[in-house]
Write a structure and sequence with these properties.
Rossmann fold; GTP-binding; globular; Small_GTPase_Rho; seven-stranded mixed β-sheet; nucleotide-binding; 9 strands
């Protein structure tokens, strides 16, 4: 796996009743950079400050999330969406409990990559693992400069209805939108990731989470 600078990991004290949960994310669309930047909630620095990075890491970033009155430990794994990592990326899939397939609502190409690149890859390497479809950068949907750029390319931002339709087509557990800049929707993303694990679809085997950390993989 490619090496990256170390990250500070924040785990709840052992005295708490935290139930471990892991999240392995993947970032921007394949062959792309910038618009689909991987976002991670860095609770280890600045008390909830969000940071972005384009560096994949085999080490998890832990955050605590409360759902239904219970506290879970979410292990976020940042992998690479670039073509250079095509052979290495699937190595992180076997221990993943849930995937977040991300695209930028102001990058139609990344939206297209979901169906053409990421879903086929997950069906090949992790066919029975639940996944969510996440629309990112919603703060730019009404940004004048972004709209002008898209207009020059005769394109428009991806709307909520398009995201919901694609989520249904590919069999995602749900569609959620968020903004790394304003943090709008981020809590919902993590909540839904946990719910997807605790309430699996029919004909799938429910995993025994116990006291371990749940692994979640982000793909964009």
């Amino acid at each position: 796996m490619p090496t990256t600078p170390s990250r500070r990991s924040t785990c709840p004290p052992s005295s708490t009743t935290t139930q471990p949960l892991s999240y392995c994310p993947k970032a921007p669309g394949k062959h792309s950079r910038g618009p689909g930047e991987t976002w991670l909630l860095d609770l280890g620095e600045g008390g909830g400050r969000l940071r972005t990075t384009l560096h994949p890491s085999p080490l998890p970033l832990h955050i605590s999330v409360t759902v239904g009155g219970k506290q879970y430990l979410l292990g976020l794994y940042d992998t690479a969406g670039q073509e250079d990592y095509d052979r290495l990326r699937p190595l992180s899939y076997p221990m993943t409990d849930v995937f977040l397939i991300c695209f930028s609502v102001v990058n139609p190409a990344s939206f297209q990559n979901v169906k053409e690149e990421w879903v086929p890859e997950l069906k090949e390497y992790a066919p029975n693992v639940p996944f969510l479809l996440i629309g990112t950068q919603i703060d730019l949907r009404d940004d004048p400069k972004t709209l002008a750029r898209l207009n020059d390319m005769k394109e428009k931002p991806i709307c909520v209805e398009q995201g919901q339709k694609l989520a249904k087509e590919i069999g995602a557990c749900c569609y959620v939108e968020c903004s790394a800049l304003t943090q709008k929707g981020l809590k919902t993303v993590f909540d839904e990731a946990i719910i997807a694990i605790l309430t699996p679809k029919k004909h799938t085997v429910k995993k025994r989470i116990g006291s371990r950390c749940i692994n979640c993989c982000l793909i964009t």
